[in-house]
Structure formats: structure tokens, C-alpha cells
Amino acid sequence: MTETNGELTQPDVLFGAPIKRRYRAVELPVSGHHLRIQSITEQEFSNYQSASVSKKGDKLIASKLKDANRRFIALCLVDADGNRILPTKDSQKLADWDAGDAQYLYNECATHCKINSDDIEDAVKNSDGDLVDS
Q: What is the value of pTM for the model shown?
């Protein structure tokens, strides 16, 4: 058992505080665009994960996996006031971006959210389903 150097946080403090988003500005390496990203909640991440490994019967839906990185970026991309600038349903708009910018932004979002970018791949590997087109 690990000892702490201070008092443990009480449950009313731990679960009673409102969500506090974290923000960071990033510059895309190819286009040079300056963007703002935000952290996401556990609920938002769980919803993203379950949508990324959606199934049709016992088969994984390929289009959901192909769009997973773009949907994650859409969750994190915000304006100066913290409002999302790209609804998840419109994440296809990122499909024609330079792959270098898209991958950079995905990695920056994952790092900022403290999420291992292999989490989705692991979820897919553990889903025991074959891929099918949607």
C-alpha cells in the first residue's frame, strides 16, 4: 500500500466540482493554421470509443473505424470561447486535409487529453468482429 504525504480528497470535493476543461493552442506543421484544442470528459471518450467500434451484427463497421481519427479531432477542436467548431457528424470535412496536419492534430489531441492513441486499436482487436462496409 502506498502512503500519501497529505490528506485524501473527500468524495464531496472529488465528485462535486464542475468540469474544468483544459485548453491548448497548436500550430499545424504543413498548413501553418493555428487552432485551439480542449480536453474531453470520460463520458465523451467512452461514447467516442463505442461509436468507433460499432457493430452490425457480429461485424465491425469499417466506415466508423476509417472516420475514428477525424471524429476524435472534432471532439477536441474548439474556438476561442471553447465552443466546438466542427460537429462530430461533420468530421468528414477533415478527410481532404493534408495527412501530415491531420495526424499531427490527432496526436496533439490525444496527448492533451492524456489518452493513449493505441486505445482504439486495442478496442478493435478485443472486439472479435470482422470488418464490413456500412
A: 0.79
